[in-house]
Every structure is written in C-alpha cells, then in structure tokens.
Design goal:
disordered C terminus; single chain; 214 residues; 4 helices; DNA-binding
Length: 214
DNA sequence: CCATAGATGCACT
DNA sequence: GTGCATCTATGGC
C-alpha cells in the first residue's frame, strides 16, 4: 500500500514558520512515539517558543555548538537535550535551516498508551504523567537517541499530528524557568482550563552548592 | 495547598 | 569551575 500522508499529518512548511507562530498551533496536536514497548501519544497543552541567536534564553544564543547543531538545521526535527543531570527535554525545530528557533514541549495529556506511560513514570497519577517538560519526555520514552529525529517524515517512530480543529482559545504568559532577561516575553502558550499545564514558576537564581563559601 | 533542598551530568567559559 | 529551558521528597499549613 502507499505511504501517502495522512490528512492530519503536519508538514515541514508548518514548522518553517517563526516559533511564535508555530507554538500556539501545536497546542492540541498529538506527539506520538512508537517503540518496541508500544505506542504513547501526548496531546500538547503547554509549549514555549525559543528564538535564535538574539534570544538570551535560547540555547542557540551563543551560536552553533555540538549540542545546538540540530537547532540550526532544517525545521520539523526534534532537538533533545539533557538537563540538570537526569532529565531530557524535547523541542521541535522551527524556521528554515540556518535559523535556530524551536518550540519546547512543556506539558500535555497522555491520550494513548496510558499503561506504558504510567509504568515509565513510576506509577504517577494520570495528571502528572506529562505535566512538565522532563516528565513529558519520560512518558514518551524520548531521550538522546531521538535528538535530530525528523518528525514530519512519514514512518518515523517519533511524529506529530493534528487532532481535530485548532485550539479555539490560547493563553500566553512569560516563559518558565528562564533567566537572563529572556523570561519577560509572552512566549509561553497554553490551553485554558487544562489540569496538565505546569504551574508558572518565576526564575530563581540557584543557590550556591553545599560546601562553597558564601 | 506552599516552600525548600538535594540529586546529578553535561555544555560551555 | 559554574550554571543549568527540572523533578521528587519532605516538611508545614
């Protein structure tokens, strides 16, 4: 049989736009990851836009490095990075190659593979399965191996599809967990009335490590 | 509900 | 060496 695109499949052109335009359109879409263990799908309820080299809150602010190489590549790919020594976070790359914008997937609702997602999350309650960027990747089974994955190439294990009509209402707010002056722009997007949206936390400078002098 | 502290490894300076 | 685009456990209300 043919591998014709499904009607709800997102296109590369969808991601070739500014991150601030892509981000609200991603709300309500479903990210799926299929592994040997099964399929988990997450309906996105909260995302954040990160711009390129002019955005102090973006990993791309200091230009191309081995880690941020994928952000500067073509749109429609996953940028997965390691955070705080134990977590993985997932972005979808936007804008044409050479421009480093991306959208961080912050939270969602597990709509497929509830049992597998719960097992991966250590038996967490349903609302918490994908509430937070690191929880979301853990529920999906995404880690370093998915960095650079093409999510709009039909047949990839990690993919994004539209689900129903676009969100009727989208709320915006300041970005979460970002300092350096990058938090003040209203580049966080979420759906209203969603219990899976992570609570907003203003950025707090990290206290010194134990044992260091004050 | 809220606040705080500790875990933990990598990218970059 | 410094600083994280975080989460969990624990304690108090």
């Amino acid at each position: 049989m043919s591998t014709a695109p499904q009607p709800d499949e997102l296109t590369r052109d969808f991601f070739a736009r500014p991150a601030t335009a892509v981000a609200p359109d991603l709300l309500g879409c479903v990210v799926e990851h299929e592994t040997a263990d099964g399929l988990v799908g997450v309906r996105l309820t909260e995302v954040e836009a990160y711009l390129g080299e002019d955005d102090p809150g973006s990993h791309a602010y200091r230009g191309v490095t081995p880690r941020t190489r994928v952000m500067f590549g073509p749109p429609g790919h996953a940028y997965v990075y390691f955070s705080y020594g134990m977590h993985w976070c997932m972005n979808l790359v936007c804008e044409p190659a050479g421009s480093a914008a991306a959208v961080l997937l912050r939270a969602g609702e597990v709509v497929t593979g509830h049992e597998l997602a719960t097992a991966r999350r250590g038996g967490a309650p349903a609302r918490d399965l994908a509430r937070g960027p690191a929880r979301l990747t853990q529920a999906l089974g995404v880690d370093r191996r998915q960095d650079g994955s093409d999510v709009v190439d039909g047949g990839c294990a990690l993919r994004v599809r539209a689900a129903g009509s676009p969100a009727a209402r989208v709320l915006t707010g300041p970005r979460t967990g970002v300092g350096g002056g990058g938090a003040t722009q209203p580049w966080r997007f979420h759906l209203p009335g969603e219990p899976t949206v992570s609570p907003y936390r203003p950025h707090q400078p990290r206290r010194r490590a134990p044992g260091s002098r004050e």
